[in-house]
């Protein structure tokens, strides 16, 4: 089990004792096949064209922004924004190494520092689950997108977390408490409604099953089990026994942990694109 910061602290990265942990966490979180498939599907659904201006909110160390460089070309504009100075510093460092035309800025998605209609596309990946006001963030994303532009969001629904474990009671306690530890643990299922409330034309809504490898489990569930012991939800022996079974299944190659991600694409009023 882990003593790392809890993964529900992404909005407080710079104030944690180990902010670099979240950079490592995001790099590890890129590895599951389901995440890679989701990233490819996002790019497919967005259908970026050369010369388009794209804003990535909650960009972290910039990984997803770099994937769009060739698609928008030298005539395009790519901007990554994150509330964390640590994340933006790392994104800028990686930009220097890659020598790509990208801008990274520190800012708040709930009060974006851009005029109305600045971007052709605005996207957010694995961000809304962490925000105190997801609706406000989406309103801002719509505001800075031009009429006819696209908004794409990729996020999880943590009540879909499934873990193959013989201790059903403890497993259910861990799954539900982890979902509830997120500010918006149900954001995945809420996305179609939130998009329609913003008067966005929903063009696609795709579920993707994400299977999690053991190193990722250590990062996001290890810290949660430590928290459950601290607050008295689980005894140390019960948590340890539960975790030892996961270690054994990992060693035997039978570990099975997954959850569902959702990708939604919407068009702002003024689009000529239909469902």
Q: Brief description of this entry?
A:
This protein is of the alpha/beta class and 275 residues long.
For the record, what is the CATH homologous superfamily label of the domain at 7-158 and 183-210 and 261-267?
Vaccinia Virus protein VP39
The order of strands across the largest sheet is 3-2-1-4-5-7-6
Q: Regarding CATH, which class of the domain at 7-158 and 183-210 and 261-267?
A: Alpha Beta
What's the tally of helices? Answer: 11
The pLDDT mean sits at 89
Q: Termini distance?
A: 46 Å
CATH topology of the domain at 7-158 and 183-210 and 261-267: Rossmann fold
Strands, count: 7
Helix percentage range: 40-55%
Radius of gyration: 19 Å
Derived structural class: alpha/beta
* Shape summary: globular
Low confidence ranges: 5-16, 271-275
| CATH architectural arrangement of the domain at 7-158 and 183-210 and 261-267 | 3-Layer(aba) Sandwich
The major sheet is characterized as: 7 strands, mixed
Helix-strand sequence: HHEHHEHEEHEHHEHHHE
Share of residues in strands: 15-25%
